[in-house]
Structure formats: structure tokens, C-alpha cells
Amino acid sequence: MSSQTDYSKLIIGDPVKCIVRVKAPVNFQREDIKVMGTKDRNTVSITDANNRVLEEFDVQEAYGPEFNINQIFDNSVKRYLYPLVQGFSVSIFSFGSSGSGKSQTIEGNRKEAGLINLCADSLFTILEDKKHHTNQARTGNMQNYNFAVRCRFVEIIDEEVYDLFGRPGKNLQDTCHVVESIWEGPTIQNATWINVNNRAQVAEILASGVKSRNQSSNEFGRLASKATGMFTIELLQTSELDTMEQLVLISRMNFFDLPGSDILLDDPENIRIRQGSSLNKSIISLGGLMKDLSGKRNDYVLYETSVLTHLLKDALGGNSLTLGIFNIQNGDTRSSSLTLNFLKYARNIFNWPVVNDAKEIGLLKKYRAEVNSVKNNKLGNSMIGVDQSLMQNQLQLGKGQMYNDRGEVVELEKKLIENHLDKMRQADDKQRLANKLAELREKFNQIVREKGDLQGELIKVEEEKLEVSKALVELQIENTRLMEILQNDKYDNNNKLLNAENDLLAVNIREEKALKQIQELQDRLKDVVEDKRELEIEFVALKKNYISLNQTVEEEKLKNQNIGMELINMVNENKALHDEMNDIYKKSGNTSDENQKFINRIEKLDRENQEQREALVFAKAEIERLKTEMLKYDIQEQQHRLEMDQKKIDMEKGYIELTKEKQTEFNSLNQRQQQESKKIKDDKLYWESQKMELTHKNKLAQRKIAELEERIVEVQRNNDEITAESNKLLLQMDEMRSVYRQKLIQFTTELNRRDGAEKPTRIGYDMSAREELIRTYTEKEIELNEKLEQTKRQKSHISTELKALKNYARQLKYLAEDWAPIGVPLPEILIKSAPVNIDDAFTQNGGGGDQEEIDRLRRKNRKLEEDLKIMQDQLQNNVKSSSVDIQSRLMNEIQTLKGEPDILRRPGSSTANAEQLRRERNDLQEENRRLINMLKDNKKWDIYLLQRDNERLLKTVKEIENGGPVGPTSGGGDHQLRQKISYYEKTIKQMEKERSELMVRATMAEEQLNSMQEHLSKTTLDYQKKIVELKKSNARTGQPY
């Protein structure tokens, strides 16, 4: 037990070596990753926008943006080539998010070589040196040393393995797939191996394999970011010992370009639901595998969850020396943090590398065979299932029973054979399905190509659709403009029908707006012309640069010896073009989403141009290197030099063709960018015009609402004033009618009572006087009604003119608001609300005049009161004389009745008086009938009612004179006489009281009528004065009324 514990402490595997590489920032990215530390210990910090440290990670080696791939190779990768030559397997994988520089690190680009080319270059140098020293010196026990190198390049996409070195006409049965080999472990079946003899052949086949990688896209993005590239260099070394024993070493160096790790930021279940279970299976399984291996060093881990993890069985926790390169970039803190966290997992993984000589390979083959046998046994046991359980049950019955049931055993063996036949049939079906799958894949590739063609056609159709949409938008703009003109014309015609002056004002306003719009359009036209001139200047500059590039290319064809300098000049000129393009893009700005898409496409072309320049530099370096080799081996390898010259010429031709294609594509994209910019500007102008139109309509609607609200308030106020004034006038008219009726009745009654004996002879005179009074009253009423109607018409005319003035003032205010400069506060006269009445605006000026008018009216009122008192005294004297006669007659009658109560009982008493009263009554009745008929003929019903009231009063007087039943009739004798006398006295008092009240009311009515007439005349004069003043002010300013 103690020895086992000692072994567990002593036998420690080799941990995975991890380094960090920071990609240089592009497009003015903020540097949020900082690398600090010493040679043995480095710290990588992730900061926020305020340079505050969010996370820190301790790493063994870290390379900032200032380190290139050559320096990384010399410091960290080159050391693994010596163990490779000694027989150890080596694995190098590049881990990081999309765009962090994984592929550039492994495969390189046209600017600098990647780790594959650098390793191949140094490997052949080491092998040549080893062969030279071993065969020349023959030191030690080794002799006849030889080596052979071959390469393989595959790509894993959607759990499918694609051979990048495969020939185009490869059979579908030779599809690559991962198998578990007892000699090699996890390997790729049907993959193409290419033998190489020098580093140039490695670079050539690597370039062809990179071109064969999948560059297509689907609905989830570019497939290159979800693909894994695996490049393998296999080294076979043989030598002979002095014991005639042959020494064999087989080692491999695997390079893994892993998928983008940014997909691991999302939930795996959501990724499987959205994008399927197999598209991102490799990177998800790799993340789980690294976590399991870092935490479970002694437990079994399942590698067969995906094709990638199966192939990484030796690289992670197996027979290999492993180097992990973790790539991070600025501007993506989440992905950088995820990558550095997986670095922590990776450096806790331990490998167990051994020298892969013949003995070790044979031992590993034995162990793998045993493991496969155990797996097959388990699989067979699971497939036999119930049949084996039955056999075991039968075997347990005993030997005797087993011999007796030998026939059943034979039947069971037949079943086993049938099961094996089923397996074979299933294998055939599987092969047939694989063939069908290959056919479907070929069809799928064809459909993808057709899809690309259809997308091209769709783009053309979309461009045509955009042109049609543009024409339609222009037609809609023109239609909108015509409709606006039509609505304005219709509005102008309606205003002309209502008010000619308002039409003239609307025409002036519309002309001013049109001039303003014309001025704005002219300004915009100037801006467009200036932009066009700038674009023409830029186009001329680009054209000159293009001509200079063509001249440079022609000079390069003539001067092959100075091709290096000319390539540098072309790179510099291309860089200048790139800077000019960046300036153009910066000027254009992010105006819309379509412009942003176009900028993304330009950035893509920019990256392609960058890669092209890098390829130029790389070609230059390659040419220089080839020149050096040609000078070195000029005499011994003349044929090889000719071939290289031919290859160089081919490369130059390809470069020239590529340059022409890129230039053509650049011109087309530039033209398309100009069209897109023009379209964006047109769209911007259209939407700005729409915005201005909607703003104008909204302002007009708000103004219309404000005008309607003011009109509603004004109409309500006018209705209230008219209603109050009408009620007041009706009340005054009623009071005046009643006063005149009472006066007429009183005057008629007094005349009737003044001279009882002479009444029959003066009926005609009294009637003519009565008719004269009635006529005078009617004429007065008609005259007042006419004055009232004239006043109403004048008031209506004044209110109409006032509305016109308010409308004109409101239009002037709106025009001033529209012409007011933006950002400057409006004057106070435009902010405050308009006065409700004109009187409100002239309150301060007209205050003194109103007070004088009030004093004048008060003096006139006092004078009228004095005249009225004089008239009342005269009327009272006339009435008093007649009333004294009546009273004296009544008192005499009363005294007579009191002194001789029996006289009333004697028949024939007071016969003359009674007859006289009857005659007077009859005359009055006939006169009343005549007057009634006259009134009915003349349709003067008010006078008729007045006569009815007069008749009622006369009837009351006659009843009093005749001693009729005006009071209670229930008693007799003295009591009845007393009641009559008291009733007469009350009646006289009541009549006196009503007379005085009527006089007072008549006086008040006259005063109110006079004051109303004065107020109307004053208001009319004020309005006329103000209208004249406004006309004069408008005439002075030159504005139309």
C-alpha cells in the first residue's frame, strides 16, 4: 500500500503548457486588456471604460500586440520540435473567440507565416542537420539514418469530416470518418496523406488546403467560425544499430484551429434548440471535456461525445506534449474572460507522453486491442440479451439436463448465427445509407451553389425593386404636393366666397411660404452641388491613383528586377487609398441601418485588401527567399531554378489578375456606395419634408382648435349678453306697456268722472283723444323697435368687422411665429393672449371719457326727474279734482243713507240718478264695442287688451257708483252699508298706492331706456373710431385690410 502511494506521488504527468496572445487593436478600438509582469510570471488584466481592473489572471507566458508570430515561435513553440524528433507526439491548439486571431496564428496570412510553416521550416533544418551529422560522423550505434515526412489536412463542420487534400473526383464510399484503430488510436479513415520533402512543399499544400476550407454561410453566420481545422505532420525516422537491429520512431505534430468560443457564453440548451444539436457540438463538448479533465485526474472521461473530442484524446490527457495558445482581443471583455477561465482549466490537465518507438507502439496496440475486446464483449452481451440469459439458466440445471437438451442448444446457436447475419445486413444497410447520405450531401452542395446564384439574382431584383420604390416615392411626393396645392386652392376658393379680404391674406401668406420653400430648396440644391463637386474631386483623385497603379503594374512587367520596391510602392498607394476610403466612410456617417450594412461590407473589403497587402509582403519575402536559394544552389540545381522562375511568373500573373479583379470589385462597390449614399440622402430629404409637412399640419390644427375655442367662448359670451339684454328689454317693455296702459286708463277714467252730465256730448272728442294716445304709443313703439333693429344691425356689422380684425391679427401672429428664428424666444406680444373685447384693449385710454359720460347722464336724469315731478303734480291736481267730486258724492250718498235708512226700502227713490248712470253705462259699452271692432279690424291686439283692462276698471267704477255687489252680500241693513263704505275706502287707498307705484316704475323705465340708448350710441361711436384707427394704421404699414 505504501509503495502505491509513493508511485502516485512520483509519477506525475506533464501538464498542458498555456500561453496568451493579445491581438492588436483595429479600427481605433479601446485597449481594455493589459499585460504586465516578468519573464517567469505574467498578469493579464481586463479593464472597463474607466481603466478599472475587472479581472486579473496569472499566466506563465503572455504576448501583447507588439509581439509577432516569429517571436512567439522562437520563445515558446520551437522547443517542441526537439522532442518531436526524439519520438514524442506534439499537439498545438489555438483557442479563442471569433476574430481573435486563431487561424492567423496557426495558418498565417499573406503578411507573415503561421506556426505550421515556421515549424516545417525549422523541422526540416533539424532533420537535415541530424542526418548530416549521423551519416557523416557515424557516432554511437546508429547508422543509415533516414526520415520521411507526410502531411494531412482535414476540416470538421457539423460533425462531418472533410478532406482538404482530397481530389475532386473522390468516390463517395471514401468519405472520411473517425475510427478507433488499435495501431494509432483515434484516427481519420480515408484521409489523404501527402509526402513532402522540404518546407516549400509544405507551404504549397497548406495554401491549397486553406483555399479549400468552407467559406460559405448559413442563417446562423459564417461556417468558418464553427469549423475546426486539423493539420498533421507525421515524422517517420529509421536507422540501424550495430546489432543489425532496426530502430523506428513514429511521431506526429497536430495543429488544431478550434471553433470560436464565444458560443459558450450562451446556454447550451438554447443553442441546441436554435441552431441544432450538431452544428456547435464540437466546441460545447470540448468545453465540458476540459472542465472534466481539470477536476477529475483519476476518473474515466468520455471522449466520444463529438468528433473533435475524440481526435483530442491524445492531446488532452493522453500520449502527447500539448501547447495551448489562448487568443484574446480588445473590445470583447466577456469573451476574453471566458477564454482566460478555460486557460485555468487547461493548465490543470496532465498528459502522459512516451517515445513512440516500435516497442511502445506494439505495447499500446496490445492495450488498445484488449480495450476494444472488452467493449465488443460488452456490446455482444447487450445485443444477445435474453438469449444469453436463457442459456445461462439452462446451464444451471445441471450437466445431465444439458446433455439431454443438446437440441435446444443447437437452436440457440442458430439464433446466434441469425443475429450475426442481422448484424451483417445492418452493416450493409449502414453502408447503403452512407452512400445515400453522400449523394444527398452532393445534392446539398449543388443546392447551396444554386442558392448562391439565386441570391445573386435576388440582389439584382432587389436593386430593381429599390429603383421602382424610389420612383414610386417620387411619384407619391409629387402626388402629395399636387394634393396639397389642390387643398390649398379649395381652401382659398372657400375663403374667397366668405371674405375677399381673407382670400387676399391667404394668397400673400401662401406666396411667402412658397418663396421660403424655394429659398430652402435652392440652399439644399447648393449643398447637393457642393457635395457632388467634392465627390467628383475625390473620384478624379481615385482615378488618378488607379491610373498610377496601372502604370506601376506595367512598369513591374518591364522591370522584374525592381519588383520588390514597386510592390512596396503599390502597398503604400493602396494604403493611401485605404485612408481616403476611411475618410469617405467617416464623412458619410451612420445615417441609417442600410449605411451601416454598407460600412460592414466595406470593412470586409478592407480586411480583404489588408490580407492582399499582407500577401504582397509575404510574396515579396518568399521571392527574396527563393532568390537566396537560387543563388545558393545555382550550379547544382539549374532545373529547380527554372521551375521556381516559372512558378514566380505564374504567381505574378495570378497577382495581377487578382489585383484587376479586386480593383474592378472595388470600383463597383464604390459606385454602389455612391448610389446608396444618394438614396439615403433622398430618403433623408423625403422624411424631413414629411416631418415639416406633419409639423405644419399639426400647427395648423392646433391653431384651428384655438380659433374654434375662442369662437365658442365668444359665441357663448355673446349669447349670454344677448339673452340678458333681451330679458332686460322685455322686462322694460312690459313695464312701459303697463305704465302707459295705466296712464291711459287713469286719464280716461278721470275724464269720464270729471263731468258726468257732459259725458254723452264729449264721447267723440274723448274717443279721438284716446285714439290719438294709442296711435302715439304705437308710433313710439314702432320707432323704438326700428331703432333697436338698426342698433342690432350696427352691432352685428361691428362684430363682423371685429372678427375680421381678430382673424387678420391672428394670421399676422401665426406668420410671425412661423418666421421667427429657431432657438430665439418669442416677443411678449406673440406670447400673451388676445383681448376678449376691444374695450379691454382700450380701457386705460377710455376711462376718463366714460366717467364724463356717466356724469352727463346723471345730470340729464336729475333734469328728467324734475320734469316728471312737474307732470305728476299737474296730473295729480287734475285727478284730485275729479276724485274730490267722486268722494264728495260718495260721502253725501253715504251720509244720506246713514241719516235715512228707510229711504232705501221705499221704491222709486234715486230714480233720476240711476237712470243717468245707466245711460252713461250704455254709452260707454257702445263706445267700447265700437273701439273693439275698430281694434279687431286694425289687428292691434295690444291696444285691444288695453281696452279690456279699461273696461274692467270702468265696470268697477260703475259698480261703485251704482252701489252694486262689489263686496260681501250676505248681510243687510246698516251692517251691509258699513261693509260697503269700508270696502270703498280700501279700494280708494289701493288705487292711490298702485298709482304711485306705477309712476315710479314708469320713471325707472324711462331712465333705463335712455341709458340703454346712450350706451348703444356710445359703443357704436367707439367701434367706428377704432375701425377707422385700425384702417389708418394698416394704410400706414402698407398691409391689406
TrEMBL record:
<dbReference type="GO" id="GO:0008017">
    <property type="term" value="F:microtubule binding"/>
</dbReference>
<keyword id="KW-0547">Nucleotide-binding</keyword>
<protein>
    <submittedName>
        <fullName>p-loop containing nucleoside triphosphate hydrolase</fullName>
    </submittedName>
</protein>
<keyword id="KW-0067">ATP-binding</keyword>
<dbReference type="InterPro" id="IPR027417">
    <property type="entry name" value="P-loop_NTPase"/>
</dbReference>
<dbReference type="InterPro" id="IPR039873">
    <property type="entry name" value="CCDC78"/>
</dbReference>
<keyword id="KW-0378">Hydrolase</keyword>
<feature type="coiled-coil region">
    <location>
        <begin position="595"/>
        <end position="636"/>
    </location>
</feature>
<dbReference type="InterPro" id="IPR036961">
    <property type="entry name" value="Kinesin_motor_dom_sf"/>
</dbReference>
<dbReference type="GO" id="GO:0003777">
    <property type="term" value="F:microtubule motor activity"/>
</dbReference>
<dbReference type="GO" id="GO:0016787">
    <property type="term" value="F:hydrolase activity"/>
</dbReference>
<feature type="region of interest" description="Disordered">
    <location>
        <begin position="898"/>
        <end position="919"/>
    </location>
</feature>
<dbReference type="Pfam" id="PF00225">
    <property type="entry name" value="Kinesin"/>
</dbReference>
<keyword id="KW-0505">Motor protein</keyword>
<feature type="binding site">
    <location>
        <begin position="96"/>
        <end position="103"/>
    </location>
    <ligand>
        <name>ATP</name>
    </ligand>
</feature>
<feature type="coiled-coil region">
    <location>
        <begin position="691"/>
        <end position="725"/>
    </location>
</feature>
<feature type="coiled-coil region">
    <location>
        <begin position="981"/>
        <end position="1008"/>
    </location>
</feature>
<dbReference type="InterPro" id="IPR029329">
    <property type="entry name" value="DUF4472"/>
</dbReference>
<dbReference type="GO" id="GO:0007018">
    <property type="term" value="P:microtubule-based movement"/>
</dbReference>
<feature type="coiled-coil region">
    <location>
        <begin position="504"/>
        <end position="552"/>
    </location>
</feature>
<dbReference type="GO" id="GO:0005737">
    <property type="term" value="C:cytoplasm"/>
</dbReference>
<dbReference type="GO" id="GO:0005524">
    <property type="term" value="F:ATP binding"/>
</dbReference>
<keyword id="KW-0175">Coiled coil</keyword>
<feature type="coiled-coil region">
    <location>
        <begin position="854"/>
        <end position="881"/>
    </location>
</feature>
<comment type="similarity">
    <text>Belongs to the TRAFAC class myosin-kinesin ATPase superfamily. Kinesin family.</text>
</comment>
<dbReference type="Pfam" id="PF14739">
    <property type="entry name" value="DUF4472"/>
</dbReference>
<feature type="domain" description="Kinesin motor">
    <location>
        <begin position="15"/>
        <end position="352"/>
    </location>
</feature>
<dbReference type="InterPro" id="IPR001752">
    <property type="entry name" value="Kinesin_motor_dom"/>
</dbReference>
<feature type="coiled-coil region">
    <location>
        <begin position="423"/>
        <end position="478"/>
    </location>
</feature>
